[in-house]
Amino acid sequence: MRRFLGEVDEQLGTSLASEPAVRELFSSAVDPDAAALGLLRVVESAGAGGEEGLLDALREESRSPSTGLLRRIVTVAGASEALTDHLVRHPASALGLQGEGTLLLDSPGAGAEALRNLLLHAVGADSDRDVASPVATRTGQDGVDALRRAYRDEVLRLVADDLGSADPVQVVDEVCRVLSDLAGAAVEAALAIARAELDPVARVRMAVIAMGKCGARELNYVSDVDVVYVHAPGDDSPDDAVAPDDDGVKTAEDMVARITEIVGAAGQEPALWELDAALRPEGKSGRLLRTVDEFDAYYVDVAESWEFQALLKSRHLAGDVYLGREWADRMRPHVWSASQRDGFVEGVRAMRRRVVSLVPTQQADAQIKLGRGGLRDVEFSAQLLQLVHGGVDESIRVPATLLALSRLGERGYIARRDARGLDDCYRFLRVIEHRLQIPRLLRTAVVPQLEDRRRRLARAVYSTGDRTTARLDRALADVRRRVRSFHEQIFYRPILDAASSDTVLTSLTAADARDRLSAFGYRDPKAALTHIQAATSGVSRAAVIHRQVLPAMLDWLAEGVNPDAGLLAFRRLGESLRDSSWYLRLLRDSGAAVHSLAAVLSASAYATNLLQHVPNAVAWIDDDTALAPRAGDTIAREARTLLSRHGAQALRPLRALHGREVLRTALTDVLEQPGVDATAAALSRSADVYLDALVSALRLSMDGDDVPSYEFAVIAMGRLGGAEIGYFSDADVMFAYRPVGEASAAGAAPLTPEASSTLAAHVKRLALALTKEASRPDALPGIVVDSDLRPEGRSGPLVRSLESYGSYYAKWSEPWEAQALLRARPVAGDAALCDEFVTLIDELRYPESVPDRSVRQMRKLKARMEAERLPRGADRSTHLKLGRGSLSDVEWTVQLLQLTHAHRVPALRTTSTLPALAAAVDADLIDESDAAVLREAWLLASGLRSAAMLFRGRTAASLPADLFELEACARLLGYPAGQSRELAEDYRSATRRARRVVERLFFGFDDTADADDPWAGRHD
Predict the structure, then answer these.
(1) Which residue in 127, 376, 751, 791 has its CB near the most CB atoms, within 10 A?
(2) pTM for the full model?
(3) Contact, 859 vs 1001, CB < 8 A?
(4) One domain for residues 828 and 701
(5) How far apart are CA 983 and CA 907, in angstroms?
(6) Assigned domain for 514 exists
(7) Are residues 821 and 840 in the same domain?
(8) 741 contact partners, CB below 8 Å, separation of at least 6
(9) Residue 264 has pLDDT above 50, yes or no
(10) Is the pLDDT of residue 1012 over 50?
């Protein structure tokens, strides 16, 4: 570097080499040696060519080296061999680097016009806009060279500004804009030369339409300029002429060939770039020129999906302005209706996959334009969203990628944060692309592998700070990873497929829309259309996103059994959550979550009703961990936190906690179908925690009562005791208490009768408060507490002391009570009392032997239940609880096994049906085949009860007779659509088989009995 600067000083008679500021200037260049050599070559060329003006300017700079000319020459020479060669050929062009650069023109419009005038002036053409077809006065090689040199002079100024920018990422869109306008000016000047040579009297009108990056005004330094050509008869043609005559067509074709040659053929001045007309109708095999009508017909009848994507960025570039505008006005409607074509979205995706597949394997990680995580991923993502949603939203109909990203973010089609992220990534990748092309002005988008070239690239990207390849590699890897993530999230969003159709109904008449909804399966299309209009009307962010989502939502709701109810629920959710950014973001970004939400809304009135009260729970649908079953300890910790925070006022928060857990279970049930036993376990865990926490909160609220110290316990019975409740189940319980004095050391004084009476009244009030609080109508979903299974039933005391329970069971207990106690399980209250109660009842429910009399009494009681408790008119074959082979049959059979064998088989000492059945198999008390039959019937009956409750929000006593409801239950139980009759047949078959097993194992009948009337002539 110092040697080259010394030679410059010899040429100029200066002392640049000794100036610290100059040495610092060269050291900061992309390649200091190349910068010094380039300056020397320019000075030598200027001296040989007599360019004293440049030499004098450089000498002046030697006295004040902080001024711009020297700095800008050094910047360019250190980065671009091609532009250095240009300066060597034309040293006077360096004077254009004085003053302000191209980037600082007044405005985009003025800039484009100034560049057009400049290049037309270079070829001696009139730049007045009133002249429809400028004609050059400098033609042939002279005109071509003049055009190319003027173009290169402007690129020289632009590169100096670009490389000298303090933040090139922020000005990259302006650089692209200037390059695009410069390309348009070059084509206009080339057309002026061609017209002068081939059609000076304008026998044919012609317009050049820019496509791709040039059309979007985001051209890079060296790229093919994609164009199509449209022609029309000249002004002197007959009035009825719709196309040029044969001579006119031939003239236009010759002009196209000449334009292509002027800008892209080899010559004394380097070619600018290639004009590529491959995006014309029918591609390279199609005609180069067409009329507006011919273009229109092609895009109506023939064009493929990707061709509309290309049209998105089209604009008039050069030639006849009015013809170009006419072409644009005719083509624009095709762009915004293209997404309604069958398979449009998948066609665009397939095109992107094809582009990626064509990238050579050895370039896959280095190709920043076409490879994964590159520029095309950003562009295709934005374009697909524009094409799908632009039909109804004119605000996103913009050609430039960065502007499109901004509009898409503003309008809610992508998150604002994501839009900013894509903007940052795209700008950075474009800067790298530009820095790759500047050195030799060659078209490339491949990061070099050679270390020296990578080092220069890093120094070109970063003008200050860390300028190493390590920094560049880290940044590029991070950007490409982020782009891949954004692209996959947006480009493969499932909602796009549905949104690309016209099912959003906004373009249809009311009658047509109702017909379409009816065809989809909506029973009340008029109401459905009202819900759609309510959800999508207006310009709010919520309305915009609802318009995006509804096409998919309508289809997905229609997949369910009750799309009408689902659509109404979706509207109500949208109204309650319209200001919740997380909800709108979920709708927009998570197709899987929207699909799941549709499944819930159309399948479960029960879960939907809970969602209306807990709308924030919609977020769980997009989070697998949020829907995962929660352990009882986890729920209990949250309940204890509420108790410690709110004390006696914790009743409402505890109800909310229980409601959320039931909703979590219901959502999981609808979406994942975990199984009856898993659902029952989750519901039971929540009920246990809720009841225990309620007892604690109520006792805190009653602390002011003047009563002796006591212990209190809630004993679950029935299905709650068996930890197998459903959404429909009451909570059967008994209440027990014990004065603390009686639990202390022997010899403690008993309570006085007055104290005993006071305590009994207090715990009764506590039990009543618990019953009322748990069963509150607003305690969604609430627990209906039922204490009818207590000793002596409704006529007995609501609450008994432990001593009273012991006395009763010792003297008065009936066999059915021992059977009921098989499912007794403490769920709330003081642990010591709970343990004592279990010890008390174990002897009764697990006796050493069961008298035959007790077995006969159980059988008679079961028979009487079937005869008397079955509702009038109910079908024995379909009743889910009392029907043949249904829940009670299976449960009583298992309970008989427990009563008779649990004393010697500890594994039978469980309150749950299925574990007890499994223990009976392990103990060889029942064949596995019989157990499988009973298990299947019990699960199917329990599943049907839960499914019916989920679907309609209220319980069902029998197998649904209504096919609509039966279909819903079948779907919720995992049957494919349309197999409701299979469910009914499966249930009848399972319960028939179960009844035969029950008759043998419970009633003691043999297999020759009349299955339809097992009691005929055989009552004990």
Answers:
(1) 376
(2) 0.64
(3) no
(4) yes
(5) 33
(6) yes
(7) yes
(8) 708, 709, 748, 749, 750, 751
(9) yes
(10) no
**Taking phi first (over 0 means left), then psi (-120 to 50 degrees means alpha), and beta for anything else, what does residue 202 get?**
left
What spatial distance separates the first Cα and last Cα of the chain, rounded to whole Å? 117
Number of structural domains in the chain: 6
761 shares its domain with 901: no
Q: What is the pLDDT of residues 881-926, one digit of tens each?
A: 999 999 999 999 999 999 999 999 999 999 999 999 999 999 999 9
Residue 608 lies in a domain: no
What does the alpha-carbon distance between residue 214 and residue 739 come to, in Å, rounded to a whole number?
90
Residue 851: how many other CB atoms lie within 10 Å: 10
Q: What is the pLDDT of residue 15?
A: 84
- Convert the pLDDT of each residue in 178-222 to its tens digit: 999 999 999 999 999 999 999 988 889 999 999 999 999 999 999
Q: Looking at the structure, tell me whether residues 195 and 303 fall in a common domain.
A: yes
Asked whether residue 1014 is assigned to any structural domain, the reply reads no
Judge if 241 and 155 occupy the same domain. Answer: yes
Query: Which residue, 546, 570, 603, sits at the end of a domain?
Result: 603
Same domain, 818 and 935: no
Are both 555 and 534 inside the same structural domain?
yes
Q: Are 643 and 650 in contact (CB under 8 A)?
A: yes
Contact 552, 594 (CB under 8 A): yes
What is the extent of the structural domain holding 234? 102-340
Q: Name the domain boundary from 819, 845, 871.
A: 845
* Residues 66 and 120 reside in one and the same domain: no
SS3 for 235-289 is: CCCCCCCCCCCHHHHHHHHHHHHHHHHHHHCCCCCCCCCCEECCCCCCHHHCCCE
Task: Tell me the pLDDT tens digit for each residue of 157-169.
Answer: 999 999 999 899 9
Angle at the Cα of 268 from the Cα atoms of 263 and 273, rounded to 5 degrees: 25
